[in-house]
Write a structure and sequence with these properties.
The protein is of the alpha+beta class. It folds into three domains: 1-44; 47-88 and 187-308, 3-Layer(aba) Sandwich (Beta-lactamase), CATH 3.40.710; 89-186, 3-Layer(aba) Sandwich (Beta-lactamase). 40% of the residues lie in helices and 21% in strands. A seven-stranded mixed sheet has the order 1-3-2-9-8-7-6, with helices on both faces. A two-stranded antiparallel ribbon has the order 4-5. Strand 2 (64-70) and strand 3 form a beta hairpin. Helix 5 crosses helix 7 (142-152) and helix 5 (95-105) packs antiparallel against helix 10 (207-217). It starts with a helix and ends with a helix. The model is unreliable at 1-6 and 26-43 (pLDDT under 50).
């Protein structure tokens, strides 16, 4: 019973972090309390996966979190609740938000909109050139998006942060560095909520802006899977934090019952995810930019192979 009560506390904390309405929070909590009082050992809809730790541990990672929201089955699956609900700098995952705001305001007109190279070298040849939004998003160009942020301006940026309820909604001293200087912070579960709203055109931006940004995030379309994501890499004094946030669409075949109104045997399943992990700055044992995608693929494959 003590185990179930501790589990319940964790689940309730998790629910409140997911932007449910107050009414829905009350209903869910009442239902969970009823389950515990009746002695049930199962928690439906919210599931912990300690076994996902093996994918991180296989890469030498001991501090990580992962959240997956299965929209089809209306369920949340997670590894390491404490890390999933803690706030961290979004790093370059914030460029999803920046792109939305820039498109909405006309600061960037479309994905082909070019911002000329300023002439100030960043030390990266792939950034030090004239670049359009699509190219900048793909290469995660800091000079491009810093200029985008300056053109948006602090007042308009704050408006959208407040409207979207993005993380702690804090800009700090510089609008052009808030996503890298540890003033603006967001949690993995909040990232998942943002991805779900983006997918369903539920953010306070036009359908056009959201559609363009989704197209920027598409990295893979093969074998019945479309994978959309944005990576991020942030640093503190001693450690790096690596992010991957996005969503995956899987095209799966199902056998319809005889007489079903659904004539097609193909279904589209969507999963929203956010992953982050820490590594020491001194650790150069792996190419971590590839590791984060390898772990993502392993967890998605593991989950979808069991949920069909």
């Amino acid at each position: 019973m003590a185990y179930r009560q501790n589990k319940l506390r964790s689940i309730i904390t998790f629910i409140f972090a997911h932007n449910c309405t107050e009414y829905m929070n009350r209903i869910i909590i009442i239902c969970l309390l009823s389950i515990v009082c009746l002695g049930s050992c199962q928690d439906t809809r919210i599931h912990e996966h300690q076994e996902w730790g093996r994918f991180f541990q296989a890469e030498g990672i001991d501090q990580a979190g992962f959240i997956l929201r299965d929209h089809t089955h209306d369920a949340v699956h997670y590894y390491n609740l404490a890390q999933d609900t803690a706030h961290f700098s979004p790093a370059s995952t914030f460029k999803i938000f920046l792109s939305l705001a820039a498109l909405e305001l006309g600061v960037v007109q479309d994905d082909k909109f070019i911002i000329p190279f300023s002439g100030d070298s960043s030390g990266r040849p792939d950034w030090d050139k004239d670049m359009n939004l699509r190219e900048a998003f793909l290469s995660s160009s800091e000079p491009y998006f810093k200029e985008v942020a300056r053109r948006i301006g602090k007042e308009r940026m704050q408006h959208f942060l407040d409207t979207v309820r993005y993380g702690n909604k804090t800009i700090g001293d510089s609008v052009a560095s808030c996503w890298t200087d540890n003033t603006l912070k967001i949690s993995a579960d909040e990232q998942v909520g943002l991805m779900k709203k983006l997918y369903f055109n539920q953010l306070p931006f036009s359908d056009r802006s959201q559609r363009i940004v989704r197209s920027l995030m598409l990295h893979e379309n093969k074998n019945g899977r479309k994978l959309y994501y944005k990576t991020g890499w942030g640093s503190t004094d001693a450690r790096h934090r690596l992010w991957v946030v996005g969503f995956a669409e899987y095209e799966m075949k199902v056998k319809e019952a005889e007489g079903s109104m659904n004539k097609s045997d193909v279904r589209n399943y969507v999963y929203f995810f956010a992953q982050n992990f820490e590594i020491p700055k001194t650790d150069t044992s792996s190419k971590w930019s590839e590791v984060r995608l390898r772990v993502l693929d392993a967890i998605l494959t593991d989950y979808t192979s069991k949920s069909k």
